[in-house]
Amino acid sequence: AQSVAQPEDQVNVAEGNPLTVKCTYSVSGNPYLFWYVQYPNRGLQFLLKYITGDNLVKGSYGFEAEFNKSQTSFHLKKPSALVSDSALYFCAVRDGDTGNQFYFGTGTSLTVIP
Amino acid sequence: EAQVTQNPRYLITVTGKKLTVTCSQNMNHEYMSWYRQDPGLGLRQIYYSMNVEVTDKGDVPEGYKVSRKEKRNFPLILESPSPNQTSLYFCASSKTGTGVGNQPQHFGDGTRLSIL
Fold this sequence. Notes:
The complex is a heterodimer.
Chain A: E1 3-5, E2 10-14, E3 19-21, E4 24-26, E5 31-38, E6 44-49, E7 56-58, E8 64-68, E9 73-78, E10 87-95, E11 102-104, E12 108-113
Parallel strand pairs in A: 2-12
Antiparallel strand pairs in A: 1-4, 3-9, 5-6, 5-10, 7-8, 8-9, 10-11, 10-12
Chain B: E1 4-7, E2 10-13, E3 19-25, E4 31-38, E5 42-51, E6 54-57, E7 65-66, E8 76-78, E9 87-94, E10 106-107, E11 111-115
Parallel strand pairs in B: 2-11
Antiparallel strand pairs in B: 1-3, 3-8, 4-5, 4-9, 5-6, 7-8, 9-10, 9-11
């Protein structure tokens, strides 16, 4: 079965420090992986997606994600956190070989402390 | 402006009273989808549509109906709402087709439904 796991409900980081939000996935075929961000009272906004062959993907607002096939992980990273990065982050996966359903993680709330 | 528009944004209603949440996109996207967001559960897909007149069940379709008569619209229908359908609902759309399987989805701003 297809699934996504975000093991941390909450991540706190000091402003200016690097941040990591973790995501692991399970699909039977080739994974299509995405990161989205949600601000209060808004819909999800696309941050970045996995591109086949690239182990480090760059996205919007200085975010990047590291793909690791052996660990089936797609962790979101940023070298220097901003207070405005505080939001809810979702990892999502679609099994490119077997269907058109999307599976989202449970979300990680990121708080950047000034 | 490219957008996905949902209406209403907020609705409080009672058990058993049929309701429809509308969703419209202006990007000519083939793929449209409905999700519900619940605390601790993330987003779960209710239904999706690959194109006009083509719909499929997601993970949690029970109690919901959808239709896709036009490319731009994808309404979500609750024929007999129950309290366990109280949730935050999102509509999304994206391109599909050969080579665009990893296209990101564009989301509406959400509809908060309360079923009493």
